[in-house]
Design goal:
With 139 residues, the chain is mainly alpha-helical. It contains seven helices and no strands. Helix 4 crosses helix 6 and helix 5 packs across helix 6. The protein is elongated, with a radius of gyration of 18 Å.
Length: 139
């Protein structure tokens, strides 16, 4: 969902050239997990309990995800975007990812803006933490 790449790692102070592929993957995964946690908490304040239950069901059930896609975005499963997701993620994960993303766009129209704000805020936070650590170490 987020574009956590080598450039992002470098922007928050990692020496990407000195990191192994395993380390880069680990850091990217940790960052994505933290942003997703923060984003989930933020989105929870935007939707009702009933909507949260519906979203959770979509995220945890391939059958419900597909049902929702056909009900509200039946044409989506024939798009090149969806086919690329199937190639990248596999059929079940593509259904769930697509249904979740489209559900969020519908229920929280400014979801993209919120996600971008969360990513930027976390990026700034990481930069500030690294600067404070370096200052404390006298670097």
């Amino acid at each position: 969902m987020f574009d956590i790449d080598d450039n992002f790692l470098a922007s928050v102070g990692y020496n990407v050239a000195a990191l192994s592929d395993t380390q880069k993957t680990q850091y990217k995964t940790e960052i994505e997990k933290e942003i997703n946690t923060r984003l989930s908490e933020r989105i929870a304040r935007e939707i009702s309990d009933e909507e949260a239950d519906d979203l959770e069901t979509i995220q945890n059930s391939e059958e419900r995800a597909m049902q929702w896609l056909y009900e509200f975005h039946g044409e989506f499963v024939s798009t090149d975007e969806y086919k690329a997701l199937v190639d990248a993620l596999g059929d079940a994960d593509a259904k769930i990812f697509s249904a979740t993303a489209l559900w969020l766009r519908h229920a929280v129209p400014h979801y993209g803006m919120i996600a971008k704000e969360m990513l930027t805020a976390y990026q700034v936070e990481l930069i500030e933490k690294r600067a404070m650590a370096q200052e404390a170490l006298g670097a």
